[in-house]
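fyi for ur records
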Amino acid sequence: MAHKNPPKKRDNTAARIIKALEETQGLLTAAAKRAGVSYSTIKRYVADYPSVAQAKEEAQERLLDFAEGKLYQKIKDGDTASLIFYLKTQGKKRGYVERVENTGKDGGPIEIKDDGKSKLVSAIARLASRTGENSGNK
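which gave:
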């Protein structure tokens, strides 16, 4: 005898996708392959099913937490590159940021010299606009 309310194919697919997202840390292409669906199907299910979208977000957050834990361990171990990376990305409010300052000579203002080209360009634009006004009267 058939079930009174058999599970819908889409619901089964959603469950497979959620499991695949958890197993692949929210990586969509890998999850699609694992669930046996296309990448576009995964994207559609993320858009259509709040539970799938939540599974994707949670899996990606777990991976981010894992990566941050590894970074913190490298910092604790004295890894200079990790320390610099952390300060550049998380220490900006304390001044740990690289900036490019564009200044003129000896830190002064930038000087812009008009070599006449801007006047020439303006004159050509005025001529072109006049020519364009008359071109419709052929």
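The radius of gyration is 30 Å. thats all i got for now
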